[in-house]
Design goal:
single chain; alpha+beta; three-stranded antiparallel β-sheet; globular
Amino acid sequence: MKKLISLTVAAALLLAPLAYTINAPALNLKVDAVSAASEEAPAATAKPAAAPKPTAKPTPKPTAKPTAKPKPTVKPTPKATAKPVATAKPAVTPKVTAKPAATAKPVATAKPAATAKPVATAKPVATAKPVATAKPVTVKQAVYQDGVYVAYGNAYSKGTEGAKITIKDGKITAIELMRTNPKIIDVNARDNYSGVWVAYGLMKERLLGQTRDSAAAVDAVSGATRSSNGWKLAVDRAFERSLKVKPADATYFAGDHMGVDPEGKYAVFASYDANKLTAVKLYPLNANGSFVDEKTYTAEQTAAIAAISPVLLANGSSAQPVAGYEAESKAAIKAFWDAEQNATINNTSAYVDGFYSSYGTARSVGVERADVIIRNGKLVDVKLYRLGTNLIDRGASAYAEVVKANAPMTAKLLANGSYIANYDEKVDGISGATESSHGWNQAVERAFEKALKVPTAGQYFDGKFAGVDNASKVLLLVDVAADQVTGIKMSLFGADGKLIADDKLTPEQKTLVNQLTANMLDKGVEMDYVNGQETLSAAAKAALVDALTNASKVQGTYKDGTFTAYGDAYDKGTNKADVTLRNGKIVNVTLTRVGMNMVDLGKAAYVEVQKALPQLTASFLAAGTREGVQQVDAVSGATSSSKALKAAVDRAYGKAEVVEANKAAYFDGTFIGVSTDKSVNVMVVVKNGVPVNMVLYFLDYAGKVKPYDQLTAAEIAVKAEIENTSTGSGLHKYGYRAAAFGNNDAEKAVSADVVEAIKAALETAGK
């Protein structure tokens, strides 16, 4: 009898001899209220021709009901010949807040009216500090619609601040603070000014649980005033967007708004008052996604900007391409459209901005995956992967034609600004890799569906999905239709890690495959185990959970991929973990003990550590999850290394978080790094997300620490400078943008190597 795919995975997993959990609790690093260092002054940006008016205070007239989050319902279906599975919705995969209706296809840029005669664009001056949007509405009645809202503060040449908030009953129940690059994509905290590092945690703590009124009254963080006010402004604008009745006297948020075309060719600064566009400034972007310095503009860039800018000012996103600058115009118009969406109070995008990942159609040789970032319903970043039969990225080892197809397919998707509707392999596929091209496009389309504010019906996508247990013993190809499993093809991996062909299976293996397949089709993840084959039975169940998670329309907590992190270091070296995750499960882990030169010690490591590494590797794989690894017992004789490696795995999970539980520049702990020539080692201590202490070591050719009495005068002088400029509590003098120093050439040469080691140590400490 058919079972519906609505039982929770968690309940089913309790029956397994091994815990096959999908996700784990988020990393919780405490951030104390430490005064942040001074924040750099903002760069120049476009000043609006007319001074922007504050957004008008909306009149609350609640009319519409808050959108209730739909619960997936499963209808029983008639009995079919083949028994389908009773499977479970992956319980631990977090839901995307506010999901959408049908997968809306990103709207094409409207074609504009006649080109207006170009006029000179106003030269930008320094951006004024963001002013809070007009006095917020007091929550006395249900004037705000529950849901997830994204908005940005005023833009400047380094990017802007943004906030993604969940509003429930007029209060902030979840918040993600963003500090973006010039392409308006959130960057790692450590890539920002040092003053912002601690401000993330403090501002999140202050804003969480607030109403619109109380959020506006939150104090800025000292040393990060501009970013703090930018976040507050973004929060206030998000509340404005959530109003059930939008203000009648304002269309736009007054201020400077930024937009970038999906291909990253141009950035547009559009200045608005409450009801009209007042100024436009166009900037070309370089290959790194940064603004091209105006002093280095080519004659062609200068001419293109002069021709296109006034057309945008006159006609906005309805502008027609300028003759002679068609390609540049199209990119600039797309960038303006993005800025306009960021400025519009009633932004009607069908999607929730953010990161999403999904899969294409699975095959016995592997599957395609796409990781995307969506803003205003447009694709603004995409990374494409080709996974092998074990569902781990093959990278450069994939078929040569598939590897070559990656870059052109990425470019095609970005140029389209979304997935390609009505995909045609002859037109849209990359020659020699049409099947992979189609899989990538399909993965991007499914990622867009995950981002919908109003969900489509069902818990799962229809199609064929692969699933592999985390020990890579079993591969399942699972057919899903209308939230039911309609077919399963099971394959076994051999000792060499390759699939065993069906005709090469032993009679015993064929019998086992048939039994397990029948059990899964009959009872799904509540399947009966085959007596004497409990390990393979558990692997089959885990593979089914994996396949259904890959088919789910809900975005998970963690990104898939391999993440490298380190445990705490000491004066003999450190411990390293390369952790490969899929759906929050550890599917591969490599543990290494490295010396002070960051080179694998191998057999030179302590004997107890050498014995512990394979034991811990097996235990971590068996544990499979973030919290499971922390329950693994330390190996006798290698207690310190066991604890350090468990910490390294936890930090790898921290790097993989889609939404960081505690956004900080660095993990707390002790970390080391070496210079390129491995002659210098620097040990950095991080407290409250800030590097506070450094110890400098000089190494010999074997990677051993040189005794102090063997150091040169220059080495002693540099060591004293590094180690005596630490307070032990505040940001270390060289913890932010370290540069070489010295009173003579010898000291400058040594300090140059030391700075390399400092940067390497901060990289190992980085989130």
